[in-house]
Amino acid sequence: MKKILIIGASGQIGSELTPFLRNIYGSNHVVAADCFFPLKGELAEGGPSCKIDATNAQEIADAVKKYDIDAVFNLAAILSAKAEESPMLGWNIGVGALLNCLEVAREFNTALFTPSSIGAFGPETPRMNTPQDTIQRPKTIYGVTKVTGELISDYYFQRFGVDTRSVRYPGIISNVTLPGGGTTDYAVEIYYAAVKGEKFYCPLQAGTLMDMMYMPDALDAVVQLMEADPSKLKHRNSFNIASMSFDPEMIYTAIRKRIPDFVMEYKQDEVRQRIADSWPDSMDDTCAREEWGWNPNYNLETMTDDMIKVLREKLK
Ligand code: SER
User: Which of 67, 142, 191, 298 is catalytic?
Assistant: First the structure.
């Protein structure tokens, strides 16, 4: 990768991936793009930026041409619970924007990274140690777009040789930009509540296990996969990656060890609970480890130490 375009740069992942890649590849080599424009702060000041609505293929093509891009990161997304409210919007962003990126990647010979998700699985999938290659019959529109995305991305690789690569992200926990409309968002919001000294109302029941990952590992994964030797990749779209799996009680306990007067109560959100119940408890990421060296650094304890330290600074 030499010249990178990030679509959805102001979102939860993009707002951290952009500076991360600018550090590695040079600030002028990473273009931050979003439909919400102009961008602010480091996204605008740290390197080139432009407006892209990912549902408009011409805007993507224009930026790829203008900046001589060789790798596109397609991070435009409507998360799972929000997409249930507007399924057509979920489809248009999840699949429509991806098709635009694939066609541009084919025309201009760029690599393409698009995240998939634990949401690409469904209730018939084995819940524990979910295999890399298994049943994928998701019951959410978000999941349907993710499975479609995995299949069409593999198709573009096999049929046209487009260098498509992807990971199935767990819920991502971060402290820069809040996610919005996701089923795993509670695991971010709980830290903000704890550090602000507020009571937290957990939308999911005790015992709802899901894979989660701290943002630094999620960022490392992208670079490791995109830089991996293609001859070693038996899979492409998409790799299971995992680092920790917990339920609301486990994250509550980890936070209470550090903030003993923090209080959490349960206030169930039916849509989110139904979605979470259809997702794996923990994925088997052996293929990612073997094919491109995936090896995360954070677990629940080390992540909790860091989240509380960073949020105390940020919210003071
Ligand atoms: N974090 C996403 C969501 O909860 C799953 O990939 O929708």
Answer: 142
Residue 61 Cα to ligand 1 midpoint, Å, equals: 28
Residues 6+ apart with CB under 8 A from 247: 204, 206, 207, 208, 209, 210
In which domain, by residue range, is 65 found?
4-168
Alpha carbon of 190 to ligand 1 centroid (Å): 16
Around ligand 1, the residues with Cβ closer than 6 Å are: 79-80, 117-119, 142, 169, 171, 182-184
- Is 142 tagged catalytic? yes
pLDDT in tens, the chain (316 residues): 899 999 999 999 999 999 999 999 999 999 999 999 999 999 999 999 999 999 999 999 999 999 999 999 999 999 999 999 999 999 999 999 999 999 999 999 999 999 999 999 999 999 999 999 999 999 999 999 999 999 999 999 999 999 999 999 999 999 999 999 999 999 999 999 999 999 999 999 999 999 999 999 999 999 999 999 999 999 999 999 999 999 999 999 999 999 999 999 999 999 999 999 999 999 999 999 999 999 999 999 999 999 999 999 999 9
Q: List 212's β-bridge partners, or say none.
A: 171, 244
The count of domains in the chain is 2
Nearest residue (by CA) to ligand 1, atom 3, is 182
Residue 280 sits in a domain whose CATH number is 3.40.50.720
Based on the fold, state whether residues 156 and 292 are members of the same structural domain.
no
Same domain, 185 and 51: no
Asked if residue 202 and residue 143 are part of one domain, the reply reads: no
Going from the Cα of 275 to the center of ligand 1, the distance in angstroms, rounded, reads 10
CA separation for the pair 236, 230 (Å, rounded): 9
